[in-house]
Amino acid sequence: MGSPVKVPKYMRKKEKLVKRLQTKLSHAPKRTEKYYKVLNSLQKTHYRIKCQRNDFLHKEANKLLDSHNLIVHEKLNIRKMLMRPKPIQDKTSGQYLPNGANRKSGLNKSISDVGWGKFLNILNYKANERGKGIIGINPYMTSQACSQCGEIVKKSLSTRTHQCPKCGFSAHRDLNAAYNILRLGLESLGLEFVMPPIIGAA
Length: 202
Hints:
This protein is mostly helical. The protein has a domain at 138-195. The chain is 50% helix and 10% strand. The chain contains 7 helices and 6 strands. The strands form 3 sheets. It has a two-stranded parallel ribbon with strand order 1-4. The model has no long low-confidence stretch (mean pLDDT 88).
């Protein structure tokens, strides 16, 4: 098991600049010199963000494949994850109720910014080129199940620590999920998963 990788959020870093350029573009008279100048600046900014993100994703994929012969990941339905929440209408008044759209919009931006789908595509084709193994597994309950005993421990996205009331195992929720993902991947190959020693475990 490796260490967590902090993903640079290139779009978030340039978000104020992009919004400023978009505002200037909307106010500039169409098909004028000023309009095309601002449009060119906006396109260049988006292109730089794309290049920076792709460079990071390629380098991280190479690091993983340089040090591992088998990669197991969750087979995520990213398109579905990016869908807007359905409107919620009160049956009595007919008014629309809060549906968390603003919060979901922020999450969608973060998912798009880190480039999960792009990274998995890069990882897959690089793994195939190198003859390395790569497996996508069903993500169902990987973050809720205890990797030590299998107990289902419900937690919201804001809960970052997995604490099992049954066996007492405590770890960052992502590490706990990673153990579950690896175990499922190995089991799909008919291999046994041996839990690494847990530092500080009783």
